[in-house]
Amino acid sequence: LARARAVLRRTRGHAQLDGGGATRTVYAFADWQFDVTSRQLVHNGRAVDLTTQEFRVLEIFVQRPGRVLPRDLLLDLIGGHDADNLDRAIDTIVSRLRQKIEPDPKLPRLIKTVRGAGYIFAAKVSAI
User: Fold this and answer.
1) Judging by beta carbons within 10 Å of its beta carbon (0-12, 13-18, 19+), is residue 45 exposed, middle or buried?
2) Which of 23, 32, 76, 127 has the most crowded CB, counting CB atoms within 10 A?
3) What pTM was computed for the model?
């Protein structure tokens, strides 16, 4: 039964990719455009490369702007494992993401830390 479910899960994913009529999901925030469908982040016409984890975290942030997201929730949503040392992995991912999207990573305006609670994506996000 587990094998059958795994096969169905994999084939559903391929069916969605092969659908041809898939809708394009693009978010705009600050001076950035984030195309989730093509996995591209663009700033003033220049593409910025993201790792898979950075992409997933940014996707989570743009889908939930203005909400405080605890580290453990972020870890769960990016598909992390339950381990105490991975709590700091989220901090590292957010730090690398800030290096790429913040004008001044030392004084973040887009991804803010909420002490004792997690992170909040403070930018105004609109779907294009």
Assistant:
1) exposed
2) 32
3) 0.78
